[in-house]
Structures are given as C-alpha cells and as structure tokens.
Amino acid sequence: MTEEQHDIRLHVNGVRYSARVPARRLLSDCLRHELGLTGTHVGCEHGVCGACTVLVDGQPARSCLMLAVSAARHDITTVEGLAAPDGTPHPVQRAFSECHALQCGFCTPGFLTLVAAYVRDNPDPGEDDAREAVTGNLCRCTGYQNIVAAVLRTAEITREHGASGAPEARRPAGRAGAADGPHSAASPKEGGRP
Description:
Blueprint: E1 5-12, E2 15-22, H1 27-34, E3 53-56, E4 59-62, E5 75-77, H2 91-98, H3 108-121, H4 127-133, H5 145-161
Parallel strand pairs: 1-5
Antiparallel strand pairs: 1-2, 3-4, 3-5
C-alpha cells in the first residue's frame, strides 16, 4: 500500500516552495530532501538534541517534531536564511566565528537559529541567562564555554550595529501572503531557492 501524498506550499527564508510529500514527512526531512536546504541537521529525531532547530513564525522549533504539512501556513527560517539578503552575516554568525563557538559544526545550525531568536527577544543577557538559553541544544565538542560567549557577543554586536536587515532581527509582521515578492510562486525546480 502506498502512502498518500500531499501537495504543499512552504514559505522558507522568504521564498515560496512547492513540494509533494507523504502525510508523515517531517519538516526536517522536507527541508533537506525536497527543498535541498541541507543546513538544517538531523540528529536524534526525537526533539532532544536541537540540531534541527529552525524558526517557525520567528520562534525556535524542532523541525524533527513538526510535519511538513503542518508548516504550510507558517514562515520558516533555516540557518540559510539568517544572513542579510546582500550576504552580510547575521550577528549570531559573526559571533560564533569570532568566539570559536563550534568544532565539528553538526549542532551549529540549531544553535545559530536558537540564539538569533533568543537575542532578538533578550537583547542584554547575562552569562547565566545565556547559559540557560542554550541548555536545550546539545553539543558534544565545545564544552559550551565558547557558545555562551557567542550568545553574549551576539547581543553585543546586535546592540552596536543592529541585525543588518536579517529576517530574524525582527519579529515577523504576520503570515506570508500570496504577494511576497518576486519568488512568491517559486519552487525548487523553478529556481526559487535563495
């Protein structure tokens, strides 16, 4: 027996995509396999490790716990969508680089999306706040010291320079509409990837 397929339209990183997926396809798998956005990593597939964290309507969410069909009415931001449209790195990307807050890099996309949203909502965290903010994401390499330093550095850069126009620097104004710009009807086959 074949599994029922669903045609869905997703709004990811400011671009509209079309995909045909089984009802049980996870958002993480859809992003990676149907849309080719492989920056979202899949670790535990149980919502524990945080490697698959993306932003759903501006809030961190585990994409391995969300069905792709459930994401169709939401704005999704992956790690690929953090930089400004001109390619300027988001403050969190700068901070993780400056603070050497990664080693193998597998957990990094989840941390980047999580911290981008956290600093947007908490612009002046203390060290204990920063440590608490990242407790839900697992890293097996760094020992977290540099990740905590990167959270604080992200806040510092954001306060000094703003978020360089990156989507996560501000709360979404609302749900995506049909006229979101030149890529509103794009699919991966139509060159709609950012």
